[in-house]
Automatic annotation (TrEMBL):
One of its GO terms (molecular function) is amino acid transmembrane transporter activity. It comes from Aeromonas diversa CDC 2478-85. GO terms for cellular component: plasma membrane. It is a multi-pass membrane protein. Its main location: membrane. The chain crosses the membrane at residues 34-54, 61-81, 118-137, 149-168, 188-209. It is found in: Cell membrane. The keyword Transmembrane helix applies. Keywords: Cell membrane, Membrane, Transmembrane, Transmembrane helix. This is LysE family transporter. Pfam families: LysE. The keyword Lipoprotein does not apply.
């Protein structure tokens, strides 16, 4: 009955996953340690699952409709992504792996990656608005809760497969050697990407911003 809904939503989500953004940048920054990259993939996917559930149950709409709460969410996301940008850009001058990989072994690569992945996606208000808009436009009120949960699981599964493949591919021996040789460029690109998203969120908080 809802076959076309699952297919359309899945296709749109795959297009969004393939687009450059903070999630892809995090995987790229984590690629010197496979467990770290795999953990980041798991964390991002879990955050996407939570975004989907919040949107499909209407909680995201409540957050976005509460001006003060949404400002807090935006500010937290901007500050966190700004911190990630600073760490990456600071590493450009040092010509060394970003700070996220420097102490990963001491704290546990997999768990550290999961924490970074969850925070990067969950604290990004643009992700909240994306899922809220996409799901609100496609999932009508007539769709029962069981189907909504299956849609959320579909988005989680697609995200997990995509980011695990990306993490695995970027942590092969050849890929690591190539990225290590261009570490300064990698740090610069990821830092600028995190910074651009952070600044765009801060801009949206200004009184004159649209």
């Amino acid at each position: 009955m809802y076959g076309s809904l699952f297919l359309t939503l899945g296709a749109l989500h795959l297009v969004a996953l393939a687009s450059p953004g903070p999630d892809v940048a995090l995987i790229l920054r984590s690629c010197q340690h496979r467990p770290l990259a795999v953990g980041a993939a798991l964390g991002i996917s879990l955050a996407i699952l939570l975004h989907a559930i919040l949107s499909l149950t209407g909680i995201s709409l409540l957050i976005a409709s509460a001006p003060l709460l949404f400002v807090v969410v935006k500010l937290a996301g901007a500050l966190y992504l700004g911190k990630m940008a600073w760490g990456a850009l600071k590493s450009v001058r040092q010509n060394a792996p970003a700070e996220i990989t420097a102490s990963a072994a001491a704290e546990g690569d997999l768990l550290r990656g999961m924490r970074q992945g969850i925070a990067t996606n969950l604290l990004n208000p643009k992700a909240l608005l994306f899922f809220m808009g996409m799901l609100a436009a496609m999932v009508t009120p007539e769709v029962e809760m069981g189907t909504r949960l299956l849609l959320a699981l579909e988005l989680f599964a697609l995200s997990l497969v995509w980011f695990l493949l990306l993490a695995w591919g970027l942590t092969t021996g050849r890929a690591r050697r190539l990225i290590t040789g261009a570490q300064r460029t990698v740090n610069l690109i990821t830092g600028l990407l995190f910074g651009a998203v952070s600044l765009s969120i801060l801009w949206s908080l200004l009184p004159l911003a649209p």
